[in-house]
Amino acid sequence: MVSTGGRRERLRAETTAEIKRVALQLMASGGPDAITLRAIAREMGMTANAIYGYFATRDDLVTTLINEVYTALADTVEAAWAQAPAGRPAGRIQAWARAFRGWALANPEGFRLIYGDPVPGYEAPEGGAAPDAAYRICTGIAALADAAWPHAEQLHARSGFQWSDFDDGLLGKVRPAFPDLPPAGVALALRIWGHLHGLVSLEIYGHLRTQTVDPGKLFQEELNQLVRSLGIDPGE
Q1: What percent of the residues of the chain are helix, what percent strand, and what percent coil, each to the nearest 5?
Q2: Dist CA 205 CA 79 (whole Å)
Q3: In terms of Cα–Cα distance, which of 202, 209, 31 is closest to 104?
């Protein structure tokens, strides 16, 4: 027999999940500024006051969404990285990258929420909406450069980057995790990120739709060329 309290908790969890789902649907159809508690209440057939019983403010809802979406992305790419053989840097880099693209295609509204247009008027809490997930993605990207560095060093070591070229917040995450990665390696991590994020963004925002019938093939070729530019054979 289900207790009244247990039933109430289950219904609350279901309603909370529906609120978050509707918020992302509104964003998909109307952009970031379409996320309002009143609009969500209207879509769900609830009163605005009832919605406030689940999220005190619109910003609380957006923070929850960002944190959950960002964490799901971090979980996805970390799992792909862990499953790829540690002795194959090309395989690990490509596994992380393909997982990133696959997650973005499966969750375009989530991708837009964390990497696209900001929600108008949204103020993140101190430390950010998803500090743990942001740290995991940041160090995950640095791990790509770290895995490639033994091969890429001879190609990139003379780039002239200094620690002073980077934000202290970035260095505070990367240097403790990868103490042997030099400034040129940190720059390489940002360049790798630019390659991956740029092409995925073009695809998510529909800019490749009329340019190619097979964006997946284009992404894979970009990955192959990226790995070669790191001094690694794509088959390694």
Answers
A1: 70, 0, 30
A2: 26
A3: 202
In this structure, what token pair is assigned to residue 230? 């790191």
What average pLDDT score do residues 80-96 get? 94
What are the tens digits of pLDDT across the range 122-179? 999 999 999 999 999 999 999 999 999 999 999 987 889 999 999 999 999 999 999 9
Rounded to 5 degrees, what are φ and ψ at 4? -60, -40
Query: Considering the chain, what is the average pLDDT of its residues?
Result: 93
Cα 20 from Cα 37, distance rounded (Å): 10
List Cα–Cα distances, 146 to 92, 135, 162, 181, in angstroms. Answer: 11, 16, 17, 6
Phi, psi of 156 (to 5 degrees): -125, -5
Predicted confidence (pLDDT) at residue 3 exceeds the cutoff of 80:
no
**Whole-angstrom distance, CA of residue 92 vs CA of residue 153:** 18
